[in-house]
Amino acid sequence: MLQNIHHIAIICSDYPSSKKFYTQFLGLQIINETYREERKSYKLDLSLNGTYIIELFSFPNPPKRTSRPESCGLRHLAFDVEDLNSIVVHYKKNTITIEPIRVDKLTNKKFTFIADPHDLPIEFYQQQFCPLNT
């Protein structure tokens, strides 16, 4: 039976900008990086806090995402965060567009989104309840 999610695979066409986004801006750690000459493709294995979570693949001309965020398939990635306000400050400081903070009507917890270099939505979800004005 299922035990855990092993990894999430993401395809990109601009490998340097995607690698920078996932490692420098999101802070994921590189486990392994492989270039596959026969495919003209990189495969970058990334972890979060020591847990393998993402395979980032580059391909020369993959099709674009059809709509955001309601296309069929993966809708978005979501990360737990302790302090959503510090996330907002961090990404604004790095000139990454971040959506206004919203509150999940089902949980009363705050969340927001950014997009990776290929417009894949990335969600930050604050696990602890905090009033909006903090």
- Rg over C-alpha atoms, rounded to the nearest angstrom: 16 Å
Number of helical elements: 2
Tell me what portion of residues adopts beta-strand conformation.
Answer: 35-45%
What would you give as the CATH superfamily of the largest domain? 2,3-Dihydroxybiphenyl 1,2-Dioxygenase, domain 1
> What's the rounded overall pLDDT mean?
87
List the uncertain runs.
none
The name CATH uses for the topology of the largest domain is 2,3-Dihydroxybiphenyl 1,2-Dioxygenase, domain 1
CATH architecture of the largest domain: Roll
Give an overview of the whole structure.
The protein has 134 residues and is of the alpha/beta class. It has two domains: 1-61, 2,3-Dihydroxybiphenyl 1,2-Dioxygenase, domain 1 (Roll), CATH 3.10.180.10; 75-134, Roll (2,3-Dihydroxybiphenyl 1,2-Dioxygenase, domain 1), CATH 3.10.180.10. It is 16% helix and 36% strand. The protein has helices at 15-25, 84-93, and strands spanning 8-12, 29-36, 41-48, 51-58, 77-81, 102-103, 110-115, 121-126. The strands form two sheets. The protein has a four-stranded mixed β-sheet, covered by helices on one side. It has a four-stranded mixed β-sheet with strand order 5-8-7-6, with helices on one face. A hairpin with a 6-residue loop joins strand 6 (102-103) and strand 7 (110-115). The longest helix is centred in the first third of the chain and has 11 residues, at 15-25. The protein is globular. The protein starts with 7 loop residues before the first strand and ends in an 8-residue tail after the last strand.
